[in-house]
Specification:
This protein has 119 residues and is an alpha+beta fold. It has two domains: 30 residues; 85 residues, OB fold (Dihydrolipoamide Acetyltransferase, E2P). It is built from two helices and six strands; from the N terminus they run H-E-E-E-E-H-E-E. The protein has a six-stranded mixed sheet with strand order 3-2-1-5-6-4. A hairpin with a 5-residue loop joins strand 5 and strand 6. The protein is elongated and about 75 Å long.
């Protein structure tokens, strides 16, 4: 009787930990919105490039693979007229996991612009 109770308790505890770990894994793969101020650097076949500065003032390039359709209608990012212009960019990042021909997993971060404001 005591053994049966202990087995049920251990099983219940393991199932709770399993459910919590699945929830945590899912939440960590989706990031909240991030805002960055950056200068538009142009469009390449792999995405839209912006130059931003970190806290120490060092420049870095951030590439956005996706942009909401309504923003592309408002801002022609494929033309050269906006290169050098400063923007406030709100974006989300998601991680896509794919498998190559050998079965190895490859993670790729996809940045999507959801708000764009010219400064």
């Amino acid at each position: 009787m005591k053994t049966n109770f202990l087995l049920k308790l251990v099983g219940f505890t393991l199932s709770i930990f399993t459910l919590v770990s699945f929830t945590t894994t899912y939440k960590s793969s989706v990031q909240d919105e991030t805002v960055v101020n950056a200068v538009y650097d142009g469009h390449e076949e792999y995405g839209y490039n912006f130059i931003a500065k970190d806290i120490e003032g060092e420049e870095y390039t951030i590439t956005f693979q996706e942009v909401k359709d309504e923003l592309l209608k408002e801002f022609d990012l494929k033309s050269e007229t906006l290169i050098g212009k400063r923007f406030s960019i709100t974006y989300k990042t998601r991680t896509e996991v794919t498998k190559d021909d050998d079965g190895y997993e490859d993670e790729e971060e996809i940045n999507t612009i959801i708000k764009l404001k010219k400064m």
